[in-house]
Amino acid sequence: MRHLGLLLTAGTLALTLAITAPARALIVFDPNNYVQNVLTAARELQQINNQITSLQNEAQMLINQAKNLANLPYSSLQQLQSSIQRTQQLLAQAQRIAYDVQQIDRAFSTSYAPATGSQSNQALVINAQSRWQNSVAALQDALRVQAGVVGNLDTNRIQTSALVTSSQGASGALQATQAGNQILALQAQQLTDLTATVAAQGRAQSLEAAQRASAQDQGREQLRRFLTPGQGYQSSNVRMFH
To answer: Is 113 helix (H, G, I), strand (E, B) or coil?
Structure first.
């Protein structure tokens, strides 16, 4: 009986020790759980890498957008405007019959009007002189405009070279577009010079043709007066302008 009591006491003590033993004595390595933990960590790391890559892409997009929105550092606008203003000033300095519709109409109703029998010999001479002076002035104006356009050629050459270089070195879409627009503006300025040259030359040719036509008309009137009895006049008053 005593022996049985000792066994019960020993069993109780052993059970108590087993219950109060440290937890680390009960840890057991689980391979499946370890694999799952590693896979979970790998997936989380991949997500982090993906987020980093996405942030890098967004940063690059912002950099590209900044480049695309950057203005072209070179501008030829001032030089082009100066060239156009010089050409406009030369056209505005046209002598005698300028580029004005009302002024042209007045001239062709007076100096270039057909000669009539009611006009005096002196009036015919004055009109002939005026027409000749108009032609000479128009020729001078045409030459001045041509000289101004030729003077713009060197400026155009410099601007073309600078704009092409800027276009080739453009860092973004906006810079490339601005360079292209300035090249178009340069071409427009060159067309303006060409238009001015053609206009000035055409003016001179038109006035010269009008002068010849009026001279022929006046010559016929002077011949009619010379051949008409009672309407002859002294040769000192006769001037023929061809």
So the answer is: coil
